Predict the 3D structure of the following.
Amino acid sequence: MTELLDSMPKTFGGLSRVTGNSMCRRSLVDYNVERDGKMHKKEWVAMLLAGGQGSRLGCLTRHIAKPGIAFGGKYRIIDFSLSNCVNSNIDTVGVLTQYKPFLLNSYIGIGSAWDLDNSHGGVHILPPFVGEQGGRWYKGTANAIYQNIDFISYYDPEYVLIISGDHIYKMDYNPMLKAHKEQNADVTISVIEVPWEEANRFGIITANKDNEIVRFSEKPAKPDSNLASMGIYIFNWSVLRKALIEDEVNPKSENDFGKNIIPALFKQGKRLSAYRFQGYWKDVGTIESYYNANMELLKDNPELDLFESNNRVLSNTDILPPQYIGTFAKVNNSLVSNGCTILGEVVNSIISPGVFIGEGAKVEDSIILPDAQILNESYVRKAIIGEKAVIKEYSSIGIKIGGNPRQSGITVIEDNSIINEDSLIEEGKNIYGNSVA
Amino acid sequence: MKKAIGIISSNHKEEFLQGIIKDRPIAAVPFAGRYRLLDFALSSMVNSGLRTVGIITPFHYRPVLDHLGAGKEWSLDRKCGGLFVLPGSNNSLQSKNNKFSLKDFLNNIEFLEFDTSDYVVLTGCSNVFNIDFRSVIESHEKNNADITMVYKDVSQDSDTEIEGLFLNKDNDGKISSITGKWPKKDEQRDLFVDIFIINRNLFLEILKGYENIEYLDLIDVIEENLKTLKVYGYRFEDYLGRIISIQSYYKCSMEMLNPIVRSQLFMGTNRIHTKIKDNPPTKYASKAAVRDSLVSSGCFIQGEVNSSILFRGVNIHPGAKIKNSIIMQRCDIGKDAVLENVILDKYVKVNNKVVLKGMDGSPMVISKKAVV
């Protein structure tokens, strides 16, 4: 046989001799793996909650779920969580969607924009589905994971990372996992220090010096700690699985992680540990916080450094030509994305891809979302202009009225709106609908 | 129906591009802020529905393969068809019109043999254009042609001599001769733009018939057989930039500042695809003053920029003044530096207060990674 092989060309029957041999050897190993049922085994998988509407963002979320809202010019909010996963070497991410998922689903696709298009693992979009007993919507964050127990079991992980798709932050989840293991914890909750005076707005966690959690208080009037939960959890899968099943049969439960699962486990005496995260983390749940988080990027040395070459934030953008800045244009202290044409003036603003700003138009302290158009001689001040919205000529958006305007005076124009010529819109207004005189 | 496959030949040299082709073949020359010259031919093919495209590589092909990868950005990472790398030959006989050397095709004849499509779309890669090959194929079929050559009428463009091949046609529109001479003022000035369509079976026949004189160029063979073959022309109306010298590279780049050119090239439904770098948006500082310029993502601009093209990740420090220049990827322009009519290749560092000025229309070229 050896002689025969020697006389053969190197490639025989489609396999080179070398690979042929190693294939034989490898297949034995493969059978063992198959028999043990560990083909799909992962150390950890991430479950990304992206189904919420984000109703406090008003007209920004009428067409797209909150994780899909554009942020910082070219990004969308979910980019941060997905990039964190890939930068933490997590290769299996389940994305739970429910509210208006079409744009979000098409944006995520198979995850190739985040290098998450793996042959084994990768991004899975998990919408509510129908089974033998009919189908149900996701009732709460915990119920969403409960309904996907089969998905997680398929990968048979040791740990499950629960994250949410509506926070802006850069985080390596590996140190958190390491702490979780070292603490021998059942659950680890990531916490961040918030200013004491703001602590009453958060879910506050009190931990002892060994980072063991001793108390929870949801939006406490008199907080005894300034550690706020970031909504990021690592569970031992066996513990989480049991807790989800118990929670599901409890009719009084709201099926929420923060409200039900964590307190239940605490009562049962499981080891709950806090992981103190240091770095940038922002919840952008309201118009004001969304606006402020965007504007912080314009500071000289922003806390969230998008230019940093390590741990880059990846995103899924169309291939657009470079931006063109016109002969009479003026752009200062702003972020401008690809595919924009800027012929007017832009100051202290964030301009998303594909935006057009006409001659004589002026945009100030504003966030212009993708493909919006501000036509000639219009003026936009302290506003969020929705995707594909058109502000026609000679309009003024965000006119000062003095006093105490709504939402800190931020004007929001919904996606796809068309604002007619010569329109005057006062500050703090939310403009819904397609055509406004 | 799979009607056509594409071949892009990048195995040719443009000798007059000075420094910017020192380390890279013409196919990989950076253009318009974020593209490489190859992107235009490749995107046109993909946007016209071609699903199988072969690239004949130049001798120094690292930058080309680095840019293309598996062809993901052009949707060419396919199970059926996709991107094929066709190794080019190391040609010692580099003649001027040697863009479509028979030897290159003969070396890769399997690529043509194993396909079942009717037509092969062939292009070079030193031109900037966005063409819909579907209309060229339509005209090819209407004429029942063997070969259709795409040309651009340049009689309006220039009074001075243009180098290249010109097509003469008879009354039926059939090409009667191909000449390298600049036509006289009252003659047709129909410049061949290195784009043509040939029936695949005829192409295979030609390759087999000329097997022993493989150093010939396909265009020479077509010229030789104009009498027996049905060769037609197709007039291309939109923008086409030809890059044959550093002056034409500069001129062509600056034409990107023209909104009509940009709308024809970039803004239609058929977009030019390129490798994605995923840079952040460009940051304009409070004292930035940018006018009439094309700016790519990931730049940080604190100085003054006029009528220039900035590639990705360029850093311009306060007080720097840039005018009529092309600044490639990740260059760093120091405080109060002055640049006028220059082309900076990638990663050039210009120190504080350095003044660099080229001539109007004939720019100064600073090569890759230089520190000035």
About this structure: The longest helix of chain A spans residues 17-36.
